[in-house]
Design goal:
The complex is a heterodimer of chains A (409) and B (289). Chain A contains 9 helices and 18 strands. In chain A, helix 3 packs across helix 5 and helix 6 runs parallel beside helix 9. Chain A folds into 2 domains: 239 residues, Rossmann fold (3-Layer(aba) Sandwich); 137 residues, TPP-binding domain (Rossmann fold, 3-Layer(aba) Sandwich). Chain A starts with 18 loop residues before the first strand and ends with a helix. Helix content of chain A is 28%, strand content 27%. Chain A is an alpha/beta fold and 409 residues long. Chain B is of the alpha/beta class. Chain B has one domain: Rossmann fold (3-Layer(aba) Sandwich), CATH 3.40.50. Chain B has a 9-stranded mixed beta sheet, with helices on both faces. In chain B, helix 1 runs parallel beside helix 2, helix 1 crosses helix 5 and helix 3 packs across helix 4. The longest helix of chain B is centred in the C-terminal third of the chain and has 19 residues. In chain B, 49% of the residues are buried. The chains are: A alpha/beta (409), B alpha/beta (289). At the A-B interface, helix 3, helix 5, strand 7, strand 10 and strand 13 of A face helix 3, helix 4, strand 7, strand 8 and strand 9 of B.
């Protein structure tokens, strides 16, 4: 039995495909687009332009917006690279709620009538989107999970690189050990928790004759800050499709109140950031105190590396809840920063961390190991134990400050 | 009566002394011990809160190899659970989040003798997989309302309604605390910043009593342990493990070092004076802008 006819067909497969387009699920907040949405659109635009050239097709970047009268925002998305925008307009969609939003997005994903307006050439065969992008944040992470659970397809989270290609796959189950060609597969790259490894996830149809099954859309959630937005082009034309979603009479989740809380950690306006990593391990409590003293002297905000957010040390409750928290992580799985001065103390410089701080103006690092990757991202590398170096820095800075204030008197 | 459940995970122990890294910075899995994941532990605290405050019956479930028993034991110590369930079968190997959620859904439906679970907790995300997808996907398959990033909650037992506060922080935006109301059943993922607070003396007393009991019970945890394979869970083999996973891991590679334009000046502080140029640079940079 022949496993798949895609092994022999190359370009002719275009006509009858059931899966089309990239759907990008847009997030917004009080009428303002969350930046990651534009970054996703930018990446989708680049991927789709290559895709259409390569496969001689006319598939689209489709932005999906749920909201209450946010037409203006939809128009803006066209200038950032969307070919079409589906605007699901309903007052119940004013704020994100997982249950309602999931149902509406699934309705849209399965609705072939919309495709008549977006790309009539594909409307007779359209079943579902080919790819779907969500933001890997508090909203998109969960929304992507429930949408793909309802659509019973595959999802990869926290992606920072995407490639579309044709691949020869041999897999124990997917292909029953045979080599089978898969076309138009989204290679989804995610950095792992160590920051040193990249795992590529694929969402593949089962072509195993004992368990044939199609898995589309190929879904992913994308790390905020990973991709560049498309340069705004006010002359770009696109189609906005007004969509009336079916909404339950009595939504389960009721929002009683929403309030804005002041950020306790502010990396955006900090001129100096002092970060530390596992180099504090000899005596964590003491060393964090040192780092904090040094940071306070410089008026700096404090950051940490990803492994520290996994609470590797026994610390006093106060220290633990103040510093060893995911909110302080600098890197692809935390914040991206660009201060005037970045001081990296006892951290090795995993790629995922460097990605979050490499735009800093001046970088000074303190490390015992000259072979640590952080040296490549440093302007000054102080070779030594932080226990020795940081007190010396504190001492000298205090003296300098005293001298400066004496002079200015 | 409130029936609560927690879904937990056995994870690498990232604590110093237990975690082992290879020289290239990757995790040495063979040398690293496994424990109850820290976010799973917080979810257990939330279930314990339900026990103290509402007299909830607590069931714990996990999918994993037989050694995941140790995580169930730790979870019982934190929650004083009445029931520990291990979903273990070679057929589950290689499962992605969707295939895992399928197992957990059936597991939750069979908890507490098939009594309906009102509230399920899970951790924010696992410290190794870190997808954060399994909780919401399990919730969806169960048909439970999903509430993510919950930092505080209370339950109105008469009305069977949960009030929850959840944290929403989006890139470049102010953080929002959203107060919501939802009828039970719900599936909650607990935010890492959650802390159980027992306000009254009677709550604190009963928390103490349950804690002591929990310790005792967990010493004898096997008595509370039930092991389910795919047959006992009445699972369709095509929906679990590799056959039920839409996604595969195609390859794993080292992330290449980013190109850099910097050339580090190396300073060896054998003498404090060697640091003087560094100090000047720091002060200049901080004051200059």
């Amino acid at each position: 039995m022949k496993l798949s006819n895609s092994t022999t067909q190359e370009t002719n497969s275009n006509i009858n495909e059931k899966y089309r387009h990239i759907y990008v699920i847009i997030e917004h907040f009080e009428g303002q687009v969350v930046p990651v949405s534009l970054e996703m659109l930018g990446e989708a635009r680049r991927l789709m332009d290559d895709f259409n050239r390569k496969y001689d097709s006319t598939e689209k970047v489709v932005a999906v917006v749920l909201g209450s009268n946010v037409r203006k925002l939809c128009e803006e998305l066209v200038t950032y690279g969307a070919d079409s925008v589906i605007h699901a307009n309903h007052e119940e969609l004013k704020y994100p709620r997982n249950d309602i939003d999931t149902k509406v997005i699934v309705q849209i994903a399965k609705d072939a009538r919309i495709i008549k307006e977006i790309s009539p050439e594909y409307s007779s065969t359209f079943v579902r989107p080919r790819y779907m992008f969500f933001a890997a944040d508090n909203i998109g992470r969960h929304l992507s999970s429930t949408v793909l659970a309802e659509l019973e397809s595959g999802l990869a989270s926290d992606i920072n690189k995407l490639v579309i290609s044709d691949l020869d796959i041999r897999h124990e189950h997917k292909t029953k050990g045979q080599t089978v060609k898969y076309e138009k597969i989204l290679e989804m790259y995610r950095p792992d928790f160590s920051g040193f490894l990249w795992t590529t996830i694929l969402c593949l149809d089962n072509k195993n004759p004992e368990n044939l099954r199609e898995y589309h859309p190929q879904g992913c959630s994308i790390i905020p800050g990973a991709f560049k937005p498309f340069e705004k082009d006010n002359l770009r034309k696109g189609k906005i499709v007004e969509y009336s979603p079916k909404i339950d009479q009595d939504p389960k989740i009721k929002i009683i109140n929403r309030r804005v809380v002041k950020r306790t950690i502010d990396y955006e306006t900090s001129k100096v950031i002092v970060s530390f990593g596992r180099g504090i391990k000899a005596s964590p409590e003491q060393n964090i105190k040192l780092v904090v003293e040094f940071a306070e002297l410089l008026g700096a905000e404090i950051g940490i590396t990803l492994p520290l957010s996994k609470k590797p040390y026994q610390l006093s409750q106060n220290m633990d809840s103040k510093y060893m928290i995911p909110d302080r992580v600098i890197g692809t799985s935390g914040s991206k920063v660009a201060p005037t001065l970045y001081v990296a103390i006892g951290l090795s410089g995993a790629v995922q961390h460097v990605a979050g701080m490499k735009d800093s103006e001046v970088v000074i690092s303190i490390n015992t190991d000259e072979n640590s990757p952080i040296i490549d991202e440093s302007d000054i590398f102080i070779k030594g134990r932080l226990e020795d170096v940081v007190p010396m820095l504190i001492d000298q800075i205090k003296k300098q400050i005293a001298a400066i204030s004496l002079r200015s008197n | 009566m409130l029936n609560a459940a927690v879904i937990i995970k056995l994870e690498p122990d990232f604590s110093e002394g237990n975690v082992s890294y290879n020289s290239d910075g990757t995790l040495n899995r063979a040398e690293t011990k496994n424990i109850l994941g820290p976010h799973s532990a917080i979810a257990c605290n939330a279930a314990f809160y339900c026990k103290v405050k509402y007299g909830a019956h607590v069931s714990i479930g996990t999918m994993g190899p037989p050694i995941a028993e140790s995580a169930l034991k730790q979870a019982q110590m934190l929650s004083d659970a009445e029931e520990l369930n291990l979903y273990s079968d070679r057929l589950f190997a290689g499962a992605d989040t969707l295939a895992t959620a399928e197992v957990l859904k059936n597991g939750i439906e069979k908890m507490f003798g098939g009594n309906k679970i009102d509230i399920v907790f899970s951790g924010h995300r696992a410290s190794d997989g870190e997808t954060g997808q399994t909780g919401p996907q399990t919730a969806w398959k169960l048909g439970y309302t999903f509430l993510g990033n919950v930092i505080d909650f209370d339950i109105d037992l008469d009305r069977k309604v949960v009030f929850a506060k959840r944290l929403i922080s989006l890139q470049g935006m102010d953080t929002i605390i959203e107060e919501i109301e939802s009828p039970l059943p719900v599936f909650i993922t607990i935010d890492p910043s959650y802390r159980s607070i027992f306000n009254s003396i009677s709550q604190r007393l009963s928390a103490n009593t349950f804690s002591k009991e929990a310790k005792k019970h967990s010493e004898d945890y096997r008595q509370y342990l039930k092991i389910f394979d795919s047959k006992k869970l009445e699972l369709d083999p095509k929906l679990v493990g590799l056959p039920g996973s839409p996604t595969i891991v195609y390859k794993v590679e080292k992330i290449p070092r980013a190109k850099t334009s910097r050339k580090a000046e190396i300073v060896i502080p054998s003498n404090p004076n060697n640091l003087t140029p560094v100090i000047e640079k720091i002060i200049q940079t901080v004051r200059g802008k």
